[in-house]
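Researcher: Please generate the 3D structure of the following complex. Treat every line as part of one assembly.
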Amino acid sequence: DQQVKQNSPSLSVQEGRISILNCDYTNSMFDYFLWYKKYPAEGPTFLISISSIKDKNEDGRFTVFLNKSAKHLSLHIVPSQPGDSAVYFCAARPYNFNKFYFGSGTKLNVKP
Amino acid sequence: NAGVMQNPRHLVRRRGQEARLRCSPVKGHSHVYWYRQLPEEGLKFMVYLQKENIIDESGMPKERFSAEFPKEGPSILRIQQVVRGDSAAYFCASSPDRGNTEAFFGQGTRLTVV
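Model: Done. Output below.
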């Protein structure tokens, strides 16, 4: 029962261009959404989050968009840099339960 | 301000042995989560614990796996009679009681069963 889905296992982007990573969810109880970045042999690190009362949150080169009606969120990275190459996981948490549900990840490759 | 500490970082066990993975959460965090990442796969939820209580173990295999988070000391994930299929990276995360905050992850324990 995959409640958070990342349908693109990989994405390749040229340095300087925009990277758009997508995530869909099914549980309408989710009210807090997060993106994590993971390098090989390391633990995931938090990148950016958004509460369901917002539809956009920006932090430097990273922006997360939330479309509640479509149950869809996306992460935009502009401009993309080679150091952004990693696996990106989206995650969600319901308002009434402190458990985080993760997608399967998207491997981003930013080419120099 | 130490983050989530997991040890050991690497663990090699022979088939049939026991594996014990330890996780010390961020100081003040009372929620602990364990995830498993098989090669070329995503993060699979295993168990969610609060101090002395298992809240959700829906991702734990029914046999050989157990987890605890005692009042004092680290959280322990125990795998008895390990098999080759248990080889994976095991990640622990912790979060505080309230508020919209993220879960913080440790560096993981890479278990290899030979």
